[in-house]
Design brief:
- The complex is a heterodimer of chains A (264) and B (298).
- By secondary structure, chain A is of the alpha/beta class.
- Chain A is built from 10 helices and 10 strands.
- In chain A, 36% of the residues lie in helices and 25% in strands.
- In chain A, the strands form 2 sheets. A 6-stranded mixed sheet of chain A has the order 6-7-8-3-9-10, with helices on both faces.
- Chain B is globular, with a radius of gyration of 19 Å.
- Chain B contains 11 helices and 2 strands; from the N terminus they run ααααββααααααα.
- Chain B has a two-stranded antiparallel ribbon with strand order 1-2.
- Chain B has one domain: Orthogonal Bundle (ABC transporter involved in vitamin B12 uptake, BtuC).
- The termini of chain B are far apart.
- The chains are: A alpha/beta (264), B mainly alpha (298).
Chain lengths: 264, 298
């Protein structure tokens, strides 16, 4: 559905951030992109959605396709029309608009008002809590509600591909589970293809079908989610488990750092 | 009603109608700030330009007023679009100060070019509304002030509806809230910037007609733009309702100052009274009466 082929991204014409990244997001499935801070995950998403331009970034090599339409170099608002939506890191709701106005703005690409109305109802059916808060300024919603609004707003353009950037950021574990549950339902019922960027690797690998691990602007590991869960490096560096699979105890913390095998 | 109260009433009524006419011009400023976050220091010059065009059309070419109005609206819309394209788009993503300096420069250019193109004499811009004062209770108003107030209220209602209810208006507010996210929602940010400037052009065209008709048209018409600042700072830089209320307050304060203070000090208080009020308001509510507060969640 979404194919990223060997892209390079350069900021300000000199800073090379992504160094040949290839990702394949399959139709009707969740693909996750894991990695530490500064690995280049968010840049990857911005390169896909086209908002990179407003940050003086550029895709200098490689291609990005949705279906068979090439989208790298296209402007963000045109990419959205082709059925791609992005949920930004840190929610980024339009704070001074009400919940419902946020959704209306999200449905900007739809031609007539009744289609917008229908989409709003669809979003409310997945997130009933948003309906209760429909006339409130979204800036005053709780973190979890804002995250729901950010996801709902992205659905308003009726996308086929959704880029989800750290939906768990700053939320209580219970809420994270609730939101991931809804995302999972959305993928199955609305036939969405999702590219999920996460720091919470446990949660991400639990819902995803396929995963990629990114480090320093490169993909270092790739595989089906269950294979990744069993990978000893992933266990140690991302899931916080020891090689036996038990929870890591800080009593027997190693005083040296094991070298990641993919760096050899 | 005693004579004192009648005097006060007349002052307030006069101030309110002038105030509404200030709001009309302030509306142009607010539209631009709301959508693009740019502070337009050339708002007064926009009004002057519109006034000059109308005055020239009806005096020289003996064009009917209706056609002159249509032409000036078209020219000002085109001017707004062109300005966004040529001057402001290249500044996109630069610091706000760059845009502010550009509009200050533009103001100087317009003030200079106006007399070069249209001549420097003061022209009358007469509207077919007679000069029989309109009597309201114990006071009366010149008809041009009534017309100005009505035009201001009509535009105020139209724009409040636009921003609250229409999808385009909501999209415009989304652009003002966060440009990057708005882009990702499929909103063509630059097109909305251009639209905001064009709307400011429309409002300025109407402002130019009513103010030009009241004061006569020459370069000094641009000075009404100075009154925009106390109005929008009182009301809130990005609030349409604020422009209306701010305009009313400034108009009434001015009028009362002129009526009650001027006799003691020999005149001139009406020019600075609004600014004194503005400074006081800034101390109590830095974002104006209706301005957008910075939302902080705790």
């Amino acid at each position: 559905m979404l194919t990223i082929n060997n892209i390079e991204v350069v900021y300000d014409r000199v800073i090379l951030v992504l160094k040949g990244v290839s990702i394949d997001v399959r139709e009707g499935a969740i693909t996750t992109l894991l990695g530490g801070n500064g690995a280049g995950k968010t840049t990857t998403l911005k390169a896909i959605s086209g908002v990179l331009h407003s940050e003086r970034g550029q895709v200098t090599k490689g291609t990005i396709h949705i279906g068979d339409r090439r989208i790298d170099g296209m402007r963000a608002h045109d990419v959205t029309r082709l059925g791609l939506a992005q949920v930004f890191e840190g929610r980024r709701v339009f704070e001074h608009l009400t919940t419902e106005e946020n959704l209306t703005a999200g449905g900007h690409v739809q031609k007539d008002g009744s289609a917008v109305r229908q989409s709003i109802d669809l979003v409310y059916s997945y997130f009933p809590r948003l309906k209760e808060r429909r006339h409130q300024h979204s800036g005053y919603l709780s973190g979890g509600e804002q995250q729901m609004l950010a996801i709902g707003r992205a659905l308003m353009s009726r996308p086929r591909v959704v880029l989800l950037d750290e939906p768990s950021l700053g939320l209580a574990p219970m809420l994270v589970e609730e939101i991931f549950g809804i995302v999972d339902r959305l993928v199955r019922q609305e036939k969405l293809s999702v590219l999920l960027v996460e720091q919470n690797a446990t949660m991400a690998l639990a819902v995803a079908d396929h995963g990629y691990v990114m480090e320093n602007g490169r993909i270092v590991l790739e595989g089906p989610a269950d294979k990744l869960r069993d990978n000893s490096d992933i266990k140690e560096f991302y899931l916080g488990l020891n090689e036996g699979g038990g929870r890591k105890s800080y009593r027997d913390t190693k005083h040296y750092k094991r070298r990641k095998r993919w760096l050899s | 009603m005693s004579e004192d109260m009648e005097f006060t009433f007349a002052l307030i009524l006069n101030g309110a109608s002038i105030g509404l006419m200030y709001s009309l011009i302030a509306l142009g400023f607010v539209l631009v700030y709301k959508a693009t976050d740019a502070i337009n220091f050339a708002q007064g010059e926009f009004v002057m330009l519109a006034g000059l065009i109308v005055a020239m059309l009806i005096s020289f070419e003996s064009v009917p007023l209706a056609i002159a109005v249509v032409v000036v609206l078209a020219v000002m819309i085109g001017f707004g679009f062109g300005l966004e394209r040529v001057v402001l788009r290249p500044l996109l993503g630069r610091p706000v100060v760059a845009v502010i300096m550009a509009t200050i420069g533009l103001a100087a250019v317009l003030r200079g070019l106006g007399p070069v193109i249209f001549g420097s004499e003061t022209r009358a811009l007469s509207l077919p509304i007679g000069d029989e004062p309109v009597v309201i209770g114990p006071a009366s108003l010149p008809p041009i002030q009534v017309l100005g107030a009505v035009v201001a209220i009509v535009f105020f209602l139209a724009f409040s509806w636009f921003f609250k209810k229409s999808r385009m208006g909501v999209a415009m507010r989304a652009v003002a809230d966060n440009q990057q996210v708005a882009q990702a929602m499929g909103i063509n940010v630059e097109r909305y910037f251009a639209l905001a400037w064009a709307m400011a052009g429309i409002v300025s065209a109407m402002g130019g007609i009513v103010w030009g008709s009241m004061l006569g048209v020459d370069v000094h018409l641009a000075l009404v733009g100075l009154k925009v600042f106390p109005v929008v700072i009182l009301g809130g830089l990005d609030s349409i309702g604020g422009a209306l209320v701010g305009g009313l307050i400034v108009g009434i304060v001015e009028s009362l100052a002129a009526g009650y203070l001027d006799p003691y000090v020999g005149g001139g208080t009406k020019d600075f009274a609004p600014y004194v009020l503005m400074i006081l308001v800034l101390m109590i509510r830095p974002y104006g009466i209706f301005g957008k507060r910075k939302i902080e969640r705790v």
